[in-house]
Amino acid sequence: MGIYRDLARTPGVFRILLSQLTARFPFGMLSITLLLHIQLQYGNYTSAGVILAAQSVGQAIAGPLTSRLMGRLGMRSVLSVTTVFCSGLLVLVALTLMPLTVLAVVAFLIGITTPPVTPAVRTIYPKMVPGNQVSGLFSLDASAQEIIWIIGPVAAVFVSTQLSTVWGLLLAAVFMAGGGLWFITSPELGRVRIPPSRRRFGAVLTRPTVIISTVVGFLFVASFAALETGVVAAFGHEGIEAGIVLAVFSIGSIVGGLILGHRDITPWSMVFRSLIVLVGTAVCLISLDPILLCVALFFGGFGVAPMFAALFTVVSSTVKFSETAEAYGWVGTGQLIGVALGTAIAGVTIDANGAIGGIFVSTLFLVATAFASVISARWLPDLRGKDASPIPDTAAIQLPAHKG
């Protein structure tokens, strides 16, 4: 645990951590708020799943593109433009009633213009601390981001049910604009410049660790999207139980991240961490009693932040610095496709079989996550006692020893 004390002593670490968390806070609110908003407007969860899927697909397409643009146009330029457009579109959805097909297009545009805060900050992190602290910083980030998923869902459900879903969407837009401004103006953002990649777009996908992190992340996040949809469907619009259950899940993730997430990554880390989440989620199939859900998901959450820390660390340690932003963009794309697919499948299953269908879909995705992690172990690095910093874009040339 001493690594967190060392990180606290590093100038700027907590400033950049807090500013990017604020900029990303709307995404802890947005899924539930949109789910409730669209379900109220159109009267079914399938329509809500379609809109969330459209947003996620747009964001998935944009991920690697905007991430790569940051190396050519600069992080501040790309982040500023996307923040303005995305927050404006959220206001449009909140204040305008439109046909489902038009709303799907707007949701897609929200995804396309989503600010690439995540790839930006995960590119900055390895340049802020020594290589032996990178995994710990990723773990701290993964744990801290759970604050988004603790306060975000509770705030979203409370504002949407006690005031209206319109106010929920407007609040998300305010956080996106205000948090984005704080992050964009942070000094650390100006100190790190992503060099333009010399390779063609998409070439980073030839690295096995990027493919593995993208596919495993896709399956892992799809399980959360299905779980969230099932929990919301179980408790409806009448109370804040859904927000509390999801918040407890996130608290478990924070605890797990602080206890396990800083440990050195091995080829089998993803397997063990995904199994923790699988067991906790599978127990939820017994009953939708909120107490049981809270207990099961609290312990299941122990594997969440450590799993994300493993996904990000194996990418950081095996990719050139000029390609890290694009690599994280692809990983993010995989996760967002997971959100789209998980939400859509869960929505249809819930309409057909009730809320328990969403939990069942989540469990199936976690089984696939664990299986994919087992298959991938042979290609993953063993980072015990090793530097997890990105590969330098230039390397020293070994000259022959001078004789005489």
Short description:
This protein is mainly α and 404 residues long. It has helices at 2-8, 13-24, 26-42, 45-73, 75-95, 100-112, 117-124, 134-144, 146-162, 165-184, 187-191, 208-235, 241-260, 269-283, 290-300, 304-316, 321-353, 356-376. The chain contains 18 helices and no strands.
Detailed description of the structure:
By secondary structure, the chain is mostly helical. It is 75% helix and 0% strand. The protein has helices spanning 2-8, 13-24, 26-42, 45-73, 75-95, 100-112, 117-124, 134-144, 146-162, 165-184, 187-191, 208-235, 241-260, 269-283, 290-300, 304-316, 321-353, 356-376. The longest helix has 33 residues, at 321-353. It is globular. The termini are far apart.
Secondary structure: elements and pairs:
Blueprint: H1 2-8, H2 13-24, H3 26-42, H4 45-73, H5 75-95, H6 100-112, H7 117-124, H8 134-144, H9 146-162, H10 165-184, H11 187-191, H12 208-235, H13 241-260, H14 269-283, H15 290-300, H16 304-316, H17 321-353, H18 356-376
Structural descriptors:
404 residues, mainly alpha, 0% strand, disordered C terminus, Growth Hormone, Chain: A
